[in-house]
Each structure stands twice: as structure tokens, then as C-alpha cells.
Amino acid sequence: MTDGPADKITLIGAIKEKLIGKKQDWAREGRLLTGKTADHATRLPPGQHLVSDWPVLDLGIQPLVPRESFRLVIDGAVSNAVALGWADIMALPQTIYRADMHCVTQWSRYDNEWQGVAARTIIELVQPLAAASHVIFHAHDDYITNVTLDQFDQTDAALVHSWQGQPIERLHGGPLRGMIPKLYLWKSAKWIKRIEFATADHPGFWETRGYNNNADPWLEERYS
Ligand SMILES: Nc1nc2c(c(=O)[nH]1)N[C@H]1C(S)=C(S)[C@@H](COP(=O)(O)O)O[C@H]1N2
Ligand SMILES: [Mo]
Question: Which one, out of 33, 106, 144, 198, has a CA that is 20 to 30 A from the CA of 125?
Fold first, then answer.
């Protein structure tokens, strides 16, 4: 294959320093906190409101990742590290499910239909070592986020390529993004390029800027 522009990964945009600074201030000041928690049976977590559109949140850079050059490395504390191309992703067993999403900036969107590869399919494929305790997502915009292996090892956690039956748009992290619906949405990395199984925790971009490491919306774990 030639190395033409069609298969190059392009970074579009520039880091939004001001917006990142403002979100860090929110964490420092504890903005948006209601002081309430809710049972998981309550569909809307505390302090959230419903939206019907799907807002876009990023650091200012929206990578363009052509499927021809797509490559996802899954490595670290696993017995079977892999590098998957787009055809490999699509050849894995596919899952379709419906889930709500909850962003720390207070919007929630119900009934999103996701299609992709279940986290448990990935876990079965790479065989994490007994010592693996965390999963670190690395993205093309250098965004990083971390979850525990238990948070990833859930029936509704997945790597998703379609939303409401359509390929996920570049703005929302296409061609492939993480989806962990039971955590605030910053734990769902867009434009993923590497998933690292780790034997220790490595807090990511927002987790090192005042945001909560655990990020359970029903416990209102917005900030650290
Ligand atoms: N690669 C990457 N993933 C990311 C982000 C980002 O800046 N870069 N932002 C996170 C945040 S803060 C949110 S709220 C969601 C937003 O996803 P959306 O733009 O599809 O709504 O993506 C998360 N994943
Ligand atoms: Mo966010």
C-alpha cells in the first residue's frame, strides 16, 4: 500500500488551553456538586439533566484516523499482546447494546445503541495476567484515561464503532472509541490507539487535573 494522504493519521485542531484550565478550576472549586448520591436504580444520576442531541467534548484536536491505517495495540500485562487492524476488529464477535451516557459537565443522553467489540471479548483475546489490575486507554490526541480491570470487565463495556446503526463520526471518536457507560464519559476514550493492561494505576489526563479517579456518576464522583 502506498503511504498516500488517504492512509495517514491527521491531527486537526489545536489544544484548547483555556477550556482545559476552566475545567481544572471547576474541579478545584467543586462546581456542579449537589452533595447527593443516588442508587443505581435511579436512571438519572444526581446533578445531571437530559439532552437529546450529542455534545462534542475534546481537548481541541480531533484526529482523522482512516480505517486503512487503523491499528490498535493491546499490550502490557497480558499473555497474548495483539495489534489489530480494522479488518481484525470487524472479524471479532460483535455486540449491540443500548446504554445511557453521562458527562461530568452535567448532560446525560439516554438509549444510545452501540455496536462493537465487548470488553469481555478483548479480555478473552489478550488473557490478562493475574497481576493485571488496571486498563489504560491511549488515544491519537495523546489523551489518556484509566479504569480498573473490574470497571472494564463489565457486560456493557466495549470498544464501539457504531452509534444508532451508523459509523461513529470522527468528532465523537470514530472509527473506534471506548464505551464504559456506568462511568462519567471522560473514561470513554475517543480515537483509541493503545489499550494497556497494567499492574498499577496510572491516572490519566483529567484524573491528574482534579477529576475523580473512580468516576461513578451515581456517587457524584466528579472531582478528586
Ligand atoms: N481521545 C479523547 N477521548 C476523550 C476525550 C478527549 O479529549 N480525547 N474527552 C473525554 C471527555 S471529557 C468526554 S465528556 C467524552 C466526550 O465524548 P463525545 O465528544 O463523543 O461526547 O470523551 C472523552 N474521551
Ligand atoms: Mo467530559
Answer: 144
Quote the pLDDT of residue 7. 81
Among 54, 109, 188, 206, say which to mutate for ligand 1: greatest number of ligand atoms within 8 Å of CB.
Answer: 188
Does 28 reside within a domain? yes
For a mutational test of ligand 1's pocket, the pick from 58, 160, 192, i.e. the residue with the most ligand atoms closer than 8 A to its C-beta, is: 58
* Closest atom of ligand 1 to CA, residue 58: 7
Instruction: Answer whether 173 contacts ligand 1 (Cβ < 6 A).
Output: yes
Q: State which residues form the domain around 206.
A: 5-219
- Per the structure, the count of domains in the chain is 1
Residue 192: CATH number of its domain: 3.90.420.10
pLDDT by 10-residue block (mean), the chain, 224 residues? 68 94 95 89 95 97 97 98 98 98 98 98 98 99 98 98 98 98 98 99 98 98 98
CB 80 within 8 A of CB 125: yes
Ligand 1 pocket member 172 (CB < 6 A): yes
